[in-house]
Amino acid sequence: MSFGMERDNKQAEDGELYAVYLLEEIQGQGWGRQLFKRMVDILKAKGFSTLLVWVLDGNPAIQFYRAMGGEVTKQKEIVIGGETHLEYALSWPQI
């Protein structure tokens, strides 16, 4: 898991979850929820009050972030390998 200050300095949120990876065999066992809650605790302790994460269209992780209270608030197109993809920002206005 990687997180910290919102990277673009263009968003209303001050914290950002950059990436989180769990082995497939441990997904669905509560590890993601525990890591997410720990990240929120760390961000709060450092003075952060809001959070966002960008998720590519079609990524099933969007359901996890929604279950953790995130709401889709923005979208943008990004280019990866010469192809245009849609990316969604899920936000937590107060962590």
From TrEMBL:
<dbReference type="InterPro" id="IPR013653">
    <property type="entry name" value="GCN5-like_dom"/>
</dbReference>
<feature type="domain" description="N-acetyltransferase">
    <location>
        <begin position="1"/>
        <end position="93"/>
    </location>
</feature>
<dbReference type="InterPro" id="IPR000182">
    <property type="entry name" value="GNAT_dom"/>
</dbReference>
<dbReference type="Pfam" id="PF08445">
    <property type="entry name" value="FR47"/>
</dbReference>
<protein>
    <submittedName>
        <fullName>GNAT family N-acetyltransferase</fullName>
    </submittedName>
</protein>
<dbReference type="InterPro" id="IPR016181">
    <property type="entry name" value="Acyl_CoA_acyltransferase"/>
</dbReference>
